[in-house]
Amino acid sequence: MARTRRVFILGNPEKPEVVRVLDDLHSFASSQALVVGSSLGTDGQAAVKARAERILVLGGDGTLIGVARSLGHDAIPLIGVNVGKLGFLAEFSIDELKSGFDRALHDDTLVSRRTVLQATVHRNGGVCNTSRAINDCVIQAGPPFRMIRLGITINGQDLTEVAGDGLIVCTPGGSTAHNLSAGGPILAPGVDAIILTSMNPHSLTHKPLVIGREAVIDIHALAVNPGTTAIIDGQVSFPLQVDDRVTIRRFETDWQTVRNPHHPDWHMLVSKLHWGRPPNFRQPE
Known about the structure:
The strands form four sheets. A six-stranded antiparallel sheet has the order 7-6-17-14-9-10, with no helix packed on it. The protein starts with 5 loop residues before the first strand and ends in a 13-residue tail after the last helix. It is of the alpha+beta class. The chain has helices at about 15-30, 45-50, 60-70, 95-100, 100-105, 180, 265-270; strands at about 5-10, 35-40, 55-60, 80, 110-115, 115-125, 125-135, 135-140, 150-155, 155-165, 165-170, 195-200, 210, 215-225, 230, 235-240, 245-250, 255-260. It folds into two domains: about 5-115 and about 255-270, Rossmann fold; about 115-250, Tumour Suppressor Smad4. The protein has seven helices and 18 strands. It is globular. The mean pLDDT is about 95.
């Protein structure tokens, strides 16, 4: 019999459904594991201090991303329980969690490692902001919504200068987020790569680019608006000024998520985003 694992439970306090089911899931998890704590919020450091071996995250994709970003080098596998809308990263429903709880807890083959990025904003020779990114770092033009110009170098070599609405730099796991909406490619989460996708470039030749995940990307703000901002995972934002540089590289530690054993590899892409479906497709009732 497998050793009982230490579990911490985190939930999004802004979702009433999370508050409603938290006690029930706490009782259920306690019957099969050692629950070492629970709280409402997305800061996983309490779970780190409690030496948790799995974290149950109740909420949606945004909640899961926030918890993953908070862990830093402490890559505790996350079990995402969807109490949100899409549930693309948070793969488990409450019923699926209960029926597959033992495997989610003990089957290490279900643990998937995902790339994390580190975005650092340099200004006047110093560092003014830094953050990890689970999905993406997006530089958006912002108000008054004139085109901005960004100079891009990779590994110290000049690549291009792009004028448009901004730039998306994302992980394979984040390829189905803002990058997808901007026409970027979809990558399997385990691919060792980073994606660069220009947003509405004033050019016919700036197509999305996939590069190795060890690359160091330097983005020079050549011309920006008062509202131009670097946005991390849609949750953290840094205002940018002319001549700022945003350096993006792979963070030393991947984040880890537990895959739903009930789902095949491409289940979320097909069932949630309806990839490859014809325009008149109707979901079976």
